[in-house]
Predict the structure.
Amino acid sequence: MSQATVSGRGAARWRRGHPWIYRSDVRVEPTGGAPGVVGVDDERGALLGSGLYSPTSEIRLRMLSRGDIAVDAEWWRDAIAGAAARRAGIRATAHRLVHSEADGLPSLVIDRYGPFVSVQLLSAGLEAVRSAVLEAIEDVLAPTGIVLRNDVPVRDHESLPRVVETIGEIPELVEVDSDGVRMLVDLRGGQKTGAFLDQRENQWLAGEVAGGDALDLFCYEGGFSLRMASAADRVVSVDQSARALSRLAENAELNARGNIDAVQANAFDFLRSAETGGRSFRTIVLDPPAFARNRRALARAMAGYKDLNLRALRLLDPGGHLLTFSCSYHVSRQAFEDMLREAAADSGRRVVRVATLGAGRDHPDLLAVPESSYLKGTLLQAIE
């Protein structure tokens, strides 16, 4: 196995539990420069462990194991089996099985959709050992079919192509059960690995607080809408994508929910129109896409978040609830909450925070890796 040598700073980062070692902290690149699993030592010659090497990425090494533990076929099987076992109590047939760094498997994502799994290999180092990874997935999880959703922008930084591949027969749509809500999922073309699984528990919460008229902005295929429809009188579901709204209609019919009104519109335009028209809602969900793709976009993103939340708060009935989220990593939780305070003040409403929200239990974040805590959410209630 080739060997890499890293700086004292890089070694200390790994000893503190963060598996990323950046290009600037690699003192000696592995011989030959091929991606894959390599040994890693520090400048004093002490063995740190093994990691995934990506020769063109700023994240040069993603550490897998400590000391002289061999990263072989058995290691991959044990690691995937351990991640799956930690989720054994989840009843939903669609959930995350491997959440990359949080499960000690950086750049690997595995989601279960009933008898199928959707997989992402997000680094050149991992791509180089894909046969071992896929063999372990088949041995441990025994899926009917595998979809490789390697069509994400992060692979550009790894000099990898964006592709979608399948192993076995994959139907056009897969029906899953999300804690009692039935959903049709397109594993080849749906968002992320097919659906937004990280919001499953927050969708359940939205159903708990819903009532009266509800509004679901950026509704996609209806995860929040379907849950709220069981308790609300009507749900207005807004999205710009006609394709997503068509799937929402199918999902509504599948669950016998006739109280969902799908509206194709820009969320900002809808809020302005609703405010002008004097509309109000008992429950509102704001789950926008990432507004800040990089730090340069942060100021504009925060202005967008504030505009959305300010207008949503103005539309809330007294006693109504707002579930609001940001999935932008570059927006810190502190910045998100500061924005909400400003929006609440400008709205003229007295607002309390009922709960602080994040991704579901199947999407844990590693304490040593703040980058893994990407989804921030808050449940607010307008007191008056």
